């Protein structure tokens, strides 16, 4: 059986949609709630209600949006409110301030000229845009909203929510306790990182201080473990074993009768290391290189390698772009896919 791990990141605010919404063409679209209002207050109430989820009522600039929203209205009722407003110059504009640069093939002639405050426009289930002069009569309708998908901006230190060590161009994060050392590495991989490797005194001091400031008061996992029968240690990220901190206070470490994984003692100001059982539960120290954010792009690769680690485009900064993944195996084989999601 072919086994593949897919890593994706769900960044609340940055890339995730509200519950029940669909991610389409760079925005989240969905039926948010029932709006109980009055005809003459419908537009302003709709704008205020959609703002609860950082969204706006339906805005349509092209045929794709027109066809999509028509299909949604047809499945939910007779009509729904559009985000069209009459501005102070008696001109129609959308709730986001953009101009009325598109009209449905079927629309009320009143949309071709000046408008009056207190009027509103609905999208019918047949796609027609109907104009209404509002009265103060009660009205309840399904409220559909669009929420833009926001992309991360480049952080000044290029560490994107990780801590910058300044001197060595690396970014660190200390996370919650992992069930074991293997789980600790998976937690770091979900962040686009590895368990931390340490190569000098300054890095060791930085990680220890970061751990303490993040509540790791009783130790944390590092990315080192016994690498073979020779009793030598190695870093999981493949970097050289060119520094170690089995400090004088822990001169009896590493011990043959202890475990194969390395942890840092954060209770000591020296951040001394010790070998412990890999099944211990400890917070994790992760490290990754500084990065720059680029707009994600789907690739057309077909995956055939077993054990392949695949990340969503833009990982670990955003999952705003939906893509298809293709896995190819022999006719007598199955594919086992493990999905690992991260939310922050």
UniProtKB/TrEMBL annotation:
Record-linked SMART domains: CLECT
Domain of life: Eukaryota
Membrane-spanning parts: none
Gene3D superfamilies in the cross-refs: Mannose-Binding Protein A, subunit A
PROSITE patterns in alphabetical order: C_TYPE_LECTIN_1, C_TYPE_LECTIN_2, PROKAR_LIPOPROTEIN
PANTHER family documented for this protein: PROTEIN CBG13490
Protein name: C-type lectin
